[in-house]
Amino acid sequence: MQPILSISKLTKSYATGFQALKGIDLDVREGEIFALLGPNGAGKTTMISIACGLVRATSGRVTVGGHDIAGAYRAARGMVGLVPQELTTDAFETVWDTVTFSRGLFGKRRDPAHIEKVLRDLSLWEKKDSQLRQLSGGMKRRVLIAKALSHEPRLLFLDEPTAGVDVELRRDMWRLVDGLRRDGVTIVLTTHYIEEAEEMADRVGVIRGGELILVEEKAALMQKLGRKRLVLDLAAPLPAVPAALARHRLKPSADGARLTYTYEPGGGPVDIRALMVDLASAGVAVRDVTTSQNTLEDIFVDLVRSPAEPAPPGRAPADVEGR
């Protein structure tokens, strides 16, 4: 199946010499939710702006639905909706007029029923006759989303769509996203709320310094890099880990009251029973046992950290060898 978005050898350099993108290659499958994660300045918005035809690439190629964004701009751009980070609206237009006008910009015939559905889905219907200057910041964000959906795009870019908005909008936004996916709309998402990507995305890409350093199915990424931990609360503190337990590579807490056993879910069989037998043989009594696993946020922080930067205290870095 042909990807709905295909990016090949994409670069972007500025007159100052700064290289924002360094040879990006990415295919996004039709109907998926793709989360693009990266720190500020990594190149996320630049890549999206080029894919939407708003910024000219230095080199490389971007196609949407098989249409080159440079050579067949109208056809490609008509398939794309964009919710930008910035709140850019005409203060004196009404909600209804600005959303309807956005649809017309793409050469679409008037469709009041569609506009009404979008406004109702985003809890904007009661504000349809209000001027944009009368709306709160959260409501203006909803209007941007409505404008992006006005022309029924098949590929929707959400660039930090819920940054700085209320919980109600975030809930409405993700309910709408779920409905769009069921309708076959492909969504490319950037967000600082990594738990949203963990919950919603099918695949995850991580960009750092203008380079796409990882693209992975979310479930596979969690399996490969999501270390698990077995935390053993001891009946009595240990001054040191007994030599008989050395093969398990247990990490003691500062006060000796607990031991942490870390293992990779995909790293082969894990013999917890052998660990418990060795603990009993060494005379170490366990009061309680809990387990945990790295979240996507843990993995993301480890991936984007500079190689020379140490891991935060209390958390071992994820194994990213071979990324």
From TrEMBL:
<keyword id="KW-0067">ATP-binding</keyword>
<keyword id="KW-0813">Transport</keyword>
<dbReference type="GO" id="GO:0016887">
    <property type="term" value="F:ATP hydrolysis activity"/>
</dbReference>
<dbReference type="InterPro" id="IPR003593">
    <property type="entry name" value="AAA+_ATPase"/>
</dbReference>
<comment type="similarity">
    <text>Belongs to the ABC transporter superfamily.</text>
</comment>
<feature type="domain" description="ABC transporter">
    <location>
        <begin position="5"/>
        <end position="234"/>
    </location>
</feature>
<protein>
    <submittedName>
        <fullName>ABC transporter ATP-binding protein</fullName>
    </submittedName>
</protein>
<dbReference type="InterPro" id="IPR027417">
    <property type="entry name" value="P-loop_NTPase"/>
</dbReference>
<dbReference type="Pfam" id="PF00005">
    <property type="entry name" value="ABC_tran"/>
</dbReference>
<dbReference type="InterPro" id="IPR017871">
    <property type="entry name" value="ABC_transporter-like_CS"/>
</dbReference>
<dbReference type="InterPro" id="IPR003439">
    <property type="entry name" value="ABC_transporter-like_ATP-bd"/>
</dbReference>
<dbReference type="InterPro" id="IPR050763">
    <property type="entry name" value="ABC_transporter_ATP-binding"/>
</dbReference>
<keyword id="KW-0547">Nucleotide-binding</keyword>
<dbReference type="GO" id="GO:0005524">
    <property type="term" value="F:ATP binding"/>
</dbReference>
